[in-house]
Structure formats: C-alpha cells, structure tokens
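Thread: "does anyone have the structure for this chain?"

Original post by V.I.:
We have the sequence but no experimental structure in hand. Need at least a predicted one for the grant figures.
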Amino acid sequence: MGKGDPKKPRGKMSSYAYFVQTCREEHKKHPDASVNFSEFSKKCSERWKTMSEGKSKFEDMAKADKVRYEREMKTYIPPKGETKKKFKDPNAPKRPPSAFFLFCSDFRIKGEHPGLTIGDVAKKLGEMWNNTVDDKLPYERKA
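Reply from O.Q.:
Generated one for you, tokens below.
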C-alpha cells in the first residue's frame, strides 16, 4: 500500500464526500447509537437524494477543493520512478508449439487465398481444426 508518493497532493473531494463527512461528525456526537457501515451509508445516501437547498453548501466546498487540488497539481512534480522492464533472456529455450500451431504451419491458407486478412485466416484455420477429429492425433503427438 505504500507505493504512493507521500508528497503528492491529496485528491479532490466531491460534494457528496463532504456531506458524508459531516454526517459522520454528527454520528460521532451520538456514540450510544451503534450503526454499521452499510446502514450509515444508506441513510446518508437517502438524505443526500432528498436534500435540495443544503447541497449548494457542499457543492461550494467541492469547487473550492477542486481549485486547491488543481493549484497544488500545477506545482507538483512527480518523482522519477524506476521503470522495471522485464527483459527476455535471448538464450532461454522456446516453448514448444501447440498441436493447433503445428496444424496451422502445415495448412497455409494465405497462399491459397491471398485476399484474406489475418483474422479471416485464423477463423478458417480454427474451423478446420474443430472439424478434423481424427487428424488431430499426429499433431497432438508432435506437440
């Protein structure tokens, strides 16, 4: 979890997030009423949907936070990360081809039908492979 940059500006909050934050503060004032998280979320959601006049206060807070976030992101310079690219070992042994690939190498449809695209050739070979039941054995032995 500690992969993030600690100097990166905190993300912008939505108007609903500010509303939930105030709901949580109100809920903390009444510690005797124990409510689980899902109930709390549902109640907040219902209150937010029925709210009309009070939303503007939270929307203003969200706009101000968006301005703050954009201002901080302009000055924020992300650290130069070390990109770890996995290099393939050129001396590593290659994986043996599957029975289907051996079948494909024997049946070169592209030469017979030069107008077909790669996708069409693959579809045609797939159909041929599925239709040949008995002829699969020699390819499966080679694979």
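V.I.: this helps a lot. The first helix runs from residue 15 to 28.
O.Q.: and The mean pLDDT is 82.
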